[in-house]
Amino acid sequence: MKTQAVMAAAIASTLVMSTATQAQDRSGWPESFTVGTASQGGTYFAYGSGWANFVAENLGVSGGAEITGGPMQNMALVHTGDLMFGLTTLGPARESLEGNSPLAPGMKMDNVCAMFPMYETPFSITALASSGITSISDIPDGATIGFGPAGSTSDTYFPRMMETLGVKFERRNGSWSDLGGQLQDGLIDVVAFAAGIPIPAVSQLEVQTKVNIIGMTDEEVKKITEAFPVSEFTIPASTYQSLDAPSRVVSMWNFAMVNCDVPESFVYEVTKLTMENNDKMVSIHKAARNSVPENYSKNNVLPWHPGAARWFNEHGYTIDASMIKQ
Question: Do both 176 and 244 map to the same domain?
């Protein structure tokens, strides 16, 4: 009995020391955090809002999402420290890192670090079924196309893609939910979406009216992948009610990012929570099926935050020291 009592006391002492150590590890942690997302009606807002709440509830730090103009603006806000976390696609991230952001020409946004992989952003086109537009080549000259918020991934790349494919159009910007409403009301002809699937605005649209979700031909995919930092992607038919077969498009990877000055221990715990609970992430948004550690290798643009890199390296996902922010 005495031996058991001694062992129990030793275990209790160890737990107290462990708890004290954890408390010390929280030194420098923020009292709150904000995640830069994008417009309402898009995947970034749904994913980012849910993820912020998940982190806040589990780590005991107040957090929430902020509506922004998307990846380009998120890069700028995280770089300056106005936001702690943000979501971005790697194309806009590269342009911002190199000082080519249209929001701040010449400013190299190099105080932004990668934290974990999110999902691929497919570039897809939606039109009303009543328009008769069933392919990109059907889009008439002078058609008004909604490209999402100014500075978003879609707005940055989709107009150039359409020009590459010979489409002549009038450009319209706005939130995804607003553009979906304009499409339904006949105020614009097409919406060119770049967002994780299923896109809330498209799901809402097809409940209210008949739509065509337009894919790309072999030739169109070839032209686009040769000209832009994207790869071929297939939207499963089960994604939308309006699809009766898989839709072939192109896509670009998204990563969660963090200001590089955020404490390592905090970023480690955020990364750990996210990467070790994919079932919870998928319940936030189905696009999170791809928010798994194996996809860390898709990042060839941003340096890794030391806290995130520590978690990946501890779990067998090797991140070279040269790719970790010093």
Answer: yes
Identity at 235, one-letter amino acid code = I
Give φ, ψ of 202 to 5 degrees.
-70, -45
Q: Please give the Cα distance from 199 to 265 (Å, whole number).
A: 34
Answer yes or no: do 128 and 238 share one domain.
yes
pLDDT, residue 2, reads: 38
Do 132 and 178 lie in a common domain?
yes
Contact 67, 40 (CB under 8 A): yes
Q: Checking DSSP bridges between strand 211-214 and strand 85-89, what pairing results, if any?
A: unpaired
The dihedral sign for the CA sequence 75, 79, 84, 90: positive
Q: Is residue 75 part of a domain?
A: yes
Q: Are residues 130 and 169 in the same domain?
A: yes
Q: Which residue has the tokens 């849910």?
A: 50
Q: Are residues 165 and 265 in the same domain?
A: no
**Tens-digit pLDDT profile for residues 147-158:** 998 888 899 899
Pairing between strand 112-128 and 190-194?
Answer: antiparallel
Predicted local distance difference test score (pLDDT) of residue 290: 96
Q: Where are the alpha helices (DSSP H) in 107-247?
A: 153-164, 176-184, 200-208, 218-227
Domain extent at residue 132: 121-252
Check residue 10 and give its pLDDT: 41
Q: Does an H or E element contain 121, and which?
A: strand 112-128
**Number of structural domains the chain divides into:** 2
User: Tens digits of per-residue pLDDT, 33-66?
Assistant: 999 999 888 899 999 999 999 999 999 999 999 9
Per mean pLDDT, which range of 116-120, 148-152, 247-251 is the poorest? 148-152
In the predicted model, is pLDDT for residue 3 greater than 60?
no
Distance CA 117, CA 301 (A): 12
Alpha-carbon span 193 to 215, nearest angstrom: 12
Contact 303, 115 (CB under 8 A): no
3-class state of residue 189 by DSSP = coil
Nearest to 258 by CA among 67, 108, 115: 115
Task: Give the rounded distance of the alpha carbon of 232 from its chain centre.
Answer: 18
